[in-house]
Amino acid sequence: IDELIDEYGLAEVQAYMGFVQDNAELAVRDMLRDSAERLIAQGGAAVDGAGRVTLTAEDSMDDGSVIRLTLTLDRATGGAVFDFTGTTQEVYANWNAPPAVTCAAVIYCVRCLVNQEIPLNQGCLKPIEIIVPDGTFLSPSETAAVVGGNVLTSQRVTDVCLAAFTACANSQGCMNNLTFGDDTFGYYETIGGGAGARPRRGG
Predict the structure, then answer these.
(1) Comparing C-alpha atoms, which of 186, 168, 189, 170 is closest to residue 178?
(2) Which of 32, 40, 173, 193 is deepest in the core (most CB within 10 A)?
(3) 146: which DSSP letter?
(4) pTM of the full predicted structure?
(5) C-alpha separations of 187 from 180, 181, 182, 193 in Å
(6) Which of 92, 90, 98 is nearest to 149 (CA)?
(7) How many other C-beta atoms lie within 10 A of the C-beta of residue 44?
(8) Residue among 137, 158, 159 nearest 148 (CA)
(9) Which long-range contacts (CB under 8 A, 24 or more apart) does 188-192 make?
(10) What is d(CA 110, CA 101) in angstroms, rounded to the nearest whole number?
(11) Do 57 and 67 touch, CB atoms closer than 8 A?
(12) What is the rounded distance in angstroms from the CA atom of residue 81 to the CA atom of residue 129?
């Protein structure tokens, strides 16, 4: 970045950073409008008087705790609301997840659904509102155990988001973990596993 600034100047570099985000925003808005039209054509979406499309999806953790999503797509603006109201309250287990995990899952899903070559950036989230009620296991208290939220809950949130779009079937709903080390070092890696079936491709 320093070299770009030295060659072109700070103002121009910042301007093009803005252009990249603006382009991502437009790509996401186009995808959300197209998704709304597709879902209406398939007959699987409720449409209100303003032309907003509402879809729901949910999945359960192993203890029965529910991740519930109401997804509203605005055909006029190309915006979307991901509302996780109705999700189970914080659990006495370690798969509570800070809100950043849900945000990451949403932006991942949105980027996967955009059929354009764009870099992942904050512009992808400009058309999107994410509602995660405090006290749920997607927005737990400061004392909640969250070690499993990044590797387990994140995958379930991803599955629920993709299911709402009818983009693909659920995968394994969890990451695999690889760890090794000794007294001098430790290595830990998370590995996503598989992909669910899609409308025109097997899982």
Answers:
(1) 189
(2) 32
(3) -
(4) 0.86
(5) 5, 6, 9, 19
(6) 98
(7) 11
(8) 137
(9) 190/150, 190/151, 192/155
(10) 14
(11) no
(12) 5
